[in-house]
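Comment thread on ticket #2218

A.B. wrote:
> Attaching the input chain for the structure job we discussed in standup.
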Amino acid sequence: MRVRHLILRRKTITTDTDWRDDALPPRFSGIYPKTRPAKPGWKWRSAQAHCSQHDYILLCEINEMKDNWRAWLIRKNDEEGSLVARYEFHGSHPGIHVHTDCERGGVEIGPTSIKVPLRIPAVGSERMRPPPTRPGLFWETARRYFRMDYAKGSLL
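C.D. wrote:
> Ran it. Output below, let me know if you need it in another format.
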């Protein structure tokens, strides 16, 4: 299946951890086989979601002091997760951008799926989107980019 189809599918969030600064357990990343120790200055947030065909994880990791913001869409498989795309901003170079591999995105499983060569937009052709300024704003932007919505409650 094409990466853009995986991204464009509407997904419903079933669980959300909110922001945390402790070690990252494997169940919240879907991609790391062991718990990742907490690094100074880093926070993470994870949400589980589903659509009609697949289950997904949205994993955000940020370090405001280093101006490093990243969100990963991970498709869950039986064994391990597979990275579909990375939505990122780094203060060291301009522009919010996406990394993906159109040939294998969402298919290759485990940590090796993190290394993806394609950057959209290419270096030097960044759109003038404002950089993230707060964790909540980055979360909402990444969540909307990956078409993840919270379940709608019933009206009273």
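A.B. wrote:
> Thanks. Noting for the ticket: Residues 135-145 form the longest helix (11 residues).
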